[in-house]
Amino acid sequence: MTRFLTPHAATLPSVVPFTGPEALERQMGQTFRARLGANESLFGPSPAAIAAMKEAVEGVWMYADPESHELKQALARHHGVTPQHIVVGGGIDGLLGLLCRLTLEQGVPVVTSLGAYPTFNFHVTGFGGQLLRVPYRGAHEDPQALLDTARQTGARLIYLANPDNPMGSHHTGAVIEDMVAHLPDHSLLVLDEAYADLAPEGTIPTIHPDHPQVIRLRTFSKGYGMAGARVGYAIARPELAQAFDKVRDHFGMNRVAQIGALAALADQGWLADVQRRVRAARDRVSRIAEANGLRALPSATNFVTVDCGRDGDHARAVLRETVARGVFIRMPGVAPLDRCIRISLGDDAALDVLEEVLPQAIAAAG
Amino acid sequence: MTRFLTPHAATLPSVVPFTGPEALERQMGQTFRARLGANESLFGPSPAAIAAMKEAVEGVWMYADPESHELKQALARHHGVTPQHIVVGGGIDGLLGLLCRLTLEQGVPVVTSLGAYPTFNFHVTGFGGQLLRVPYRGAHEDPQALLDTARQTGARLIYLANPDNPMGSHHTGAVIEDMVAHLPDHSLLVLDEAYADLAPEGTIPTIHPDHPQVIRLRTFSKGYGMAGARVGYAIARPELAQAFDKVRDHFGMNRVAQIGALAALADQGWLADVQRRVRAARDRVSRIAEANGLRALPSATNFVTVDCGRDGDHARAVLRETVARGVFIRMPGVAPLDRCIRISLGDDAALDVLEEVLPQAIAAAG
C-alpha cells in the first residue's frame, strides 16, 4: 500500500460497485446482443436533446457554466421551487458522494436497506460512515424499520429509494409523507427518486421544499435516457443545497450534458412517450417471465425484477447463462433478494433477444 | 447552518474558486465579444474528435465504460507506460479532489506556491489539509523553496504546475528531475502538467512511471481543446493509480467525452497544428501588450500573462475595464503576481477584439 494514503483510505478496497458491461464483453470476447442490465433507457433521450447535444459539441472547448444557471432555472420551474433549492451534479452517484462527504465522518451511523443501492453504501463507507442495514419487507423497503433503526442508532442519514432499485417496487407518496412526518430530529432522509419519472401516479410524495430533513435526488439517466451524460440533481432547502458549493467540483459538469439536460427537460412529450413504451415493455417482460415459469414482480421503474423461484445460487446460474448468451442483465446482490434477476426494459428488438435466450438460460441453469 | 454537516464541512465556505464567464455575462447583461479568461482553447478540438463526439451522442443512453479501458490503453501507448499507470477522471480538478481525499486529513501539511492554482487549494482545504504557501521567484514557482518548506513541515503533498498557471512560465525538465531527486521521503510531488502539450521542447521531465513519489496530471482541456468535456488523467505507479478506485465515482465519466478524448488523442496532427497556432497567438498577444506599454511574460502555455507594470489595484482596474468592454480575461489572485493580467490565446477574431479593447481599458484604468 502506498505510504501517502490516510489510514482510512488505506482500509478501503479498490472496488467497482458494479462491473460494467464493457468489461464483461472484454472477458467474453463478444459484444452483448441486448444490453438490459444497467437500467439504461434503450428508448434513448428526446431527439431534441440529441440535436442540442450534437450542436453543443461544437462548443466543447468551453467549460460549462459552473453555476448551471439555466438548467437550475428550468428545473426550479419544473418542480415549483426556486433555483436555490436545486443542486446540479454528476448524476445521483456524484451527488450521493458529495452528500456523504458533507455529512459523514468516522463512525457516523447511516441506515439503508439490506440489498439497496450499493453505490450509496460505497460512498458511506468511503467517508467513514457506519452502515446499518434493515431487511426489506418482501419486495419493499421498510419505512418503519428504517425509522426504528435510525431512532435507535442516532443515524444521521436514512436512505430510501422510491421507486426501489433493485426490486422495482414502490411506496405511495402517502407512505413516504408519513415517513417524513416521523423522522427523528437527528436524521436526514435521502430520498432517491431516480425512477420517479417512470413511477405510477401517486408515487411522488408532497414534501415542502424547505423541509429541513429531506433531500430528494433526481436524474436524467433513467426516464430522460441520458445515463452516459451524468446529470443528476437534488432538491433540498436552500441552506443544504448551498452547502454543496463547499465541496463540489465547480467546473466539473460536462457542457454538452448540461445543455442536453435542458433540452431533455423541455421535451416532456418525449418523456410521456417513453413512459408509455416503458409500460408496454414491462408487460412484455412479465409475459416472457411467466412463459418461462418465473414470476415478474410489479415494476414502478424501467426494469422488471423477476423472481426465479428458488435460491440465490439458482438465480445466479440463470443470470450467468443469460449473460453468456449475450444478454446483459444484473441481479440483487444479497439474500433474500438474490432469488431474483433484474431485467432492464428495452425496445422490441432487445426483448426479442431476451425472449429467445431466457428459456435456454433457464434450461442450462438446471 | 444545517445541522447535518460535519464540523469540518460547517467551517468551509460556499465558494466558487473562479466566477464563470456566464455569471459575469448575466451580471453585465451582455455576452462577451471574446472569451479569453479561462485558458480554454479557442482553436477547439480535432475535427475527428468533434465527429466522434457527435456520433457518440446517439449512444448517450448508455453509461460510459467505468474502466475507461480503451482510453487507458491508448494513453498508455501514448506515454509508454502500462494502462495500470493511468487514472482517468473528470479533468485535473476532479483528480486533484480525489487525490486530496486519498491523502489528506485534518491538519496534514501541503505545500504549494503563493498564487498557484486555487482549485488545488480548494480541495486541500476541503479535506482538512493545512496549506503552506511559498512565494514565486519572479514569474516562476520555486522548486527549492517548495522542497525546503516540505522538509521543514513534513508536507505530504507538494504541488507544482509545470508549465505554471497563472504566470505562464516553465522550468526545464532537468529542473523538475532534480526536484524529484531531492524529494523528502514523506512527500508526494503532485506535478500538474495541464499545459504540457503546449510547452516548449525540453519542458517535460523524464520520470520513471513507477516512481513512488510522483503523480503527474494531464488534461484534454487545454491543447486538445475539450475543456467542457471534463477528461483528465493521472500517471502514477500502479499502486497509487489503483488507489483511486477506492474513492472515485466509477460511473462518473461522460460517455461522449470518453469517446471524444480517444479520438482527440489519435489526432496528433491536429495537436501539432494547435501548437503552431498557439505560438503565433503568443507572439501576437505579446505585440499587442507591448504596443500598449505593457510587458508580456514569456509563455509556455495557451495564455500570456502580461505585467501591467504597477500594483494589483492597477491591474485589477485594467482587468475590470477590459471585462466591461466585452473581453473576458482573468488575473492572478495574490500579490505580487497580481500586478499582471492573464490573457488566454485565441484565434485572430478574438485577438482583433483584444487589440481594439485593451488600449481603451488601459486609458480608462488611468
From TrEMBL, chains A, B:
Pathway: Amino-acid biosynthesis. Residues 36-354 form the Aminotransferase class I/classII large domain. One of its GO terms (molecular function) is pyridoxal phosphate binding. The keyword Transferase applies. PROSITE patterns: AA_TRANSFER_CLASS_2 (PS00599). Its cofactor is pyridoxal 5'-phosphate. Keywords: Aminotransferase, Pyridoxal phosphate, Transferase. Pfam families: Aminotran_1_2 (PF00155). The keyword Ubl conjugation does not apply. It comes from the Bacteria. Belongs to the class-II pyridoxal-phosphate-dependent aminotransferase family. Histidinol-phosphate aminotransferase subfamily. PANTHER family: HISTIDINOL-PHOSPHATE AMINOTRANSFERASE 2, INDUCIBLE LYSINE DECARBOXYLASE. This is Pyridoxal phosphate-dependent aminotransferase. It comes from Pseudotabrizicola alkalilacus. The lineage of its organism: Bacteria, Pseudomonadati, Pseudomonadota, Alphaproteobacteria, Rhodobacterales.
